[in-house]
Prior knowledge:
Helix content: over 70%
Number of helices: 5
Structural class: mainly alpha
Strand content: under 5%
Distance between the termini: 74 Å
Amino acid sequence: MTSPFDLPEPDTRTARAADKRAQNMGAFLALSVGLSVIVVLGVYGRVHEPQFFAFNVAGFSSGTAAKAWIATVAFVLALVQIFSALVMYGKLPITAPSWIGTLHRWSGRLAVLASVPVAVHCLYALGFQSGSPRVLIHSIFGCVFYGAFAAKMIVLQRPKSPGWALPLLGGTVFTGLTVLWLTASLWFFTTSGLKF
């Protein structure tokens, strides 16, 4: 009979230590890339001379209106992401259907894809601005959103990432997109109305 106080075999300790190092290196890599993306976007947005125009989508009255509606689509898809993640991980009293993982992956892909023209418009047309608290918060969270997204994609590719990494980065991505939507789209809709 083995005592609960017996130490594990040396080979087991070595394997666990190596596994822990691999987890830590994966988290360090993901966070380093994420922070680099944040800094690069922030610096580019700050030093780039704003052009005050980036794109206009047919059917919209302005680039700002297009940006507000496209960001709203991205935000709704992010809500689908949160709901599907809660179902997948058993946090809601719902039996996860077989297609929930596919819904989760594709809603995330489409949300980020929808956010790209919005980010291009923000960076190219406006840059990193700090003229008011709302605009400064929006600029900061735009950089944070893409940095957290880049880090999350690295964690997803590394099966030995620490257990805290994916929920933390996924939550940061969602928080970033929520703050972006509140400080831009919701602000636009409340000041200009629900116009296209």
